[in-house]
Amino acid sequence: MGEPVLKFLADKWEAYEKRGYEADERSQRHTIRVLGVLMGFLGGIIVLVAWLTYEGKVSGDALLFLIGTVAGVILSMVQRHLFSVGPEE
Questions:
Q1: What is the model's pLDDT at position 89?
Q2: Which of 13, 34, 83, 89 is surrounded by the fewest CB atoms within 10 Å?
Q3: What is the spatial distance between Cα 69 and Cα 49, in angstroms, rounded to a whole number?
Q4: 84 within 8 A of 76, measured Cβ to Cβ
Q5: Is 58 exposed, middle or buried, given 0-12, 13-18 or 19+ CB atoms closer than 10 A?
Q6: 31 Cβ contact list (under 8 Å, min separation 6)
Q7: Mean pLDDT of 57-83
């Protein structure tokens, strides 16, 4: 009598686990896509400011400040993704 109930619960658990893994894959692809767009945007800004520096419209100090700021943002994002801790309970 208890075996059908256990089989039913085991099937439900397996389906739940499978859906969870599929959701994780979609979330990971979305995160990679967002990071790619962000990196492209930041790279474009750096190229633009580098060109303006070359043309003499912006000082070299401003370019170095921007590159340092972007490097800090990138390191912060990498740290968050490499050493992320699950949700606090």
A1: 43
A2: 89
A3: 13
A4: no
A5: middle
A6: 81
A7: 87
Cα-Cα-Cα-Cα torsion 69, 74, 76, 79, nearest 10 degrees, comes to -160
Q: Residue 67 and residue 54: Cα distance in Å, rounded?
A: 15
- Note the pLDDT tens digit of each residue in 28-65: 788 888 888 988 998 999 999 999 999 999 999 999 99
C-alpha–C-alpha distance, residues 60 and 68, integer Å: 12
Helix (H, G, I), strand (E, B) or coil at 1: coil
Contact call for residues 45 and 69 (beta carbons, < 8 A): no
The pLDDT tens digits of the residues spanning 9-19 come to 777 777 777 77
CA dihedral 52, 56, 62, 66 (to 10 degrees): 20
Q: Phi then psi for 45, rounded to 5 degrees? A: -65, -40
What H or E segment, with its residue span, contains residue 60?
helix 60-82
